[in-house]
Amino acid sequence: MTGSLLDVCLALLLIGAAAGTLVGAESEAAAAPDIGASSRASETAETLAGSTSAVEYTLVSAGGEAESDGATASPEAQRVAHATLAEHLARAAVRSATVDGSAPSPTAADYRRGVRRTVADAIGSNTRVRAVWRPLPCDDFDGTPRVEGAIGIGPHPPASTSVHAARFTVPVAPSSDSSDSEHTNTEAAGGVAARTIAVLFPPDRIAAAERGDNAAERVVRDRYRRIGAVLGVDAVEALDRGGPREANRALAAALADRHAGTDSPEPSGEPDACGSGDPGRVTVVVRTWSA
Hints:
Blueprint: H1 3-10, E1 14-15, E2 22-24, H2 40-50, E3 52-58, E4 68-69, E5 72-73, E6 78-84, H3 85-95, E7 98-99, H4 109-122, E8 127-133, E9 147-153, E10 163-173, H5 180-189, H6 191-200, H7 203-209, H8 214-231, H9 235-258, E11 281-289
Antiparallel strand pairs: 1-10, 2-10, 3-6, 4-5, 7-9, 8-9, 8-11, 10-11
Helix pairs in contact: 1-7, 3-4, 5-6, 5-9, 6-9, 7-9, 8-9
Pfam families: DUF7284
InterPro entries: DUF7284
Region (Disordered): 250-281
């Protein structure tokens, strides 16, 4: 199995070929003056969307150590991911996802470090880039994200400086291979919850990772174990019993039950800080300022 295919097996999401379209400034930077197509923020966003790079990394076990034979990481744990910079940001954000404030899995730590280094080398000084995945509306009580993955590169701008900002989205999509029975279960479990779990665990890629890729299989099982524990589901047992589709159905049902009614929140006149609750999009925000 080639290195690029191994990375696809582990990616846990499928990112569309296009990195997205610039759509303006994020709400936190919307008040900044001179936001426009000619700003350095927009130019940086275009660089992220159009530039490709290879990120080398090592799979990390649940204990936070590189999968290794002795002191040196085994060849099967060493990977190279090829993608645009925006796609790398989106992958890192989704792989870092937490549910209801749970601790993120350490299995993506080395990939995140590689993405940070690669993006930092590509952007200028006085630049902040942040990618965020929030597939569900915020919690009704305290406004915190129910599911969130994020990665940030660069310093925060000084409070007193003029900031330029640009935002674009990177499409992420689960496997398109779904049976009729799975469509029925998706409707019963809640569409947004099912799509969220499918982005985290694309069943076709999970199945491929479990066929002869021992390092990737350990990472996948750890991610199932951690999210299942938060949702009160033995996802690993479901995985062993019926494969990734069975495990995904169990997780989606539990997520939908926990956050029943969040697919269509009541309008309150205030925008949801978590966005529209779209599992299929990672938002990338670029902010730049003068020295």
